[in-house]
Amino acid sequence: MLDLLIAGDLLAGGVPAIVAVGPFAQTQPFEGSYWDVAAAVALGFGIAAVARLLVPRVRSVSWPTSAILAALAGSLSFGLASALDRDPTLLALLLTLVLTILFLLVGTVVEHRFRPAPDVHDTPTAELIRIGESTEVEFKSTARRNTHTGERDPVIESMVARTVCGFLNGRGGTLLVGVTDEGEVLGIGPDLPLVKVPDVDRYELFVTDLLRTSLGLPAMSRVRIGFDDPVADGGAVRSDAAGKWADRNEDAQLVCRIDVEPSPVPVYMTPPRVKGGGSPEPEFWVRTGNGTRSLRIDEMLDYHRSRWGGWFRRVFSE
């Protein structure tokens, strides 16, 4: 809805543009008057407003920028119309319609091309925990230990790789290992006894090897692994279950943070090999809401077309 703030932006950008364009237009060999130019510019503003209401992607272009583009389209249209027609008003309005839409399309494409990708990577871990799970944030209690059996579980490891694969195939995101679904900090303590040397360096090596084996070496260029203590740094709540692990290892209270950038190409996950079975088929995972799921062949093809099928389609399908 065009609220008061947007209306204020429209007036702030539009009125000065009309006032500025009008006197300039009077110095040119136009057949129309100051108010003819103002009418063409005003039409450009109206078209910009309608486009912003009907096409959500166009809203990424700020109102001041939209106003400047509309003013430019209106004044340029009147100049072209004056050069082509003795009675330029109607032609100027038609040209304004075309040029405003064209300028907004170009502005949207440029904005999409150069804007930073949605990024949670600079958000403190404690803040991510406070906000909770989303399309771009996921919590995992462990990356190796099954908390019910107490044993190493390849399924748990596979779930970590699936989540990272979903982030790569989507808009990126952050996986926090050592945080429960309720947002309590468990730390990597439960996993540390299951790596060869129970420290942060060997744990990072374990996570790196897991992701490289499951997702491939090229995908790792989009993944960053780090560790911090959100309880000490930002006031997150520590789980009661974390105490028994913290007493054994000072690194146990740390959370493993895996920041993932969106991939420019599709990424497939190779599931762990099952004893007695053949080579597993690659799987394609994507983020849906605050979960990760595998796509069927038909769904995967549609997703490929919309996600990587072409820059113009990506601009207006997001």
What is this structure, in a nutshell?
This protein has helices spanning 4-26, 34-54, 63-84, 89-114, 125-131, 154-169, 200-215, 230-234, 243-246, 297-308, 311-317; strands at 137-140, 173-177, 223-228, 255-260, 285-288, 291-294. It is α+β, with helices and mostly antiparallel strands and 318 residues long. The chain has two domains: 4-114, no CATH class; 125-317, Methyltransferase, Cobalt-precorrin-4 Transmethylase, Domain 2 (2-Layer Sandwich), CATH 3.30.950.
What does this structure look like?
Helices cover 50% and strands 9% of the residues. It is an alpha+beta fold. It has 2 domains: 4-114, no CATH class; 125-317, Methyltransferase, Cobalt-precorrin-4 Transmethylase, Domain 2 (2-Layer Sandwich). The strands form 2 sheets. It has a 4-stranded mixed beta sheet with strand order 1-2-4-3, with helices on both faces. Strands 5-6 form a two-stranded antiparallel ribbon. Helix 3 (63-84) runs antiparallel to helix 4.
Main features:
2 domains, alpha+beta, four-stranded mixed beta sheet, 11 helices, disordered C terminus, two-stranded antiparallel sheet, 6 strands, disordered N terminus, elongated, 318 residues, Methyltransferase, Cobalt-precorrin-4 Transmethylase, Domain 2, single chain, 9% strand
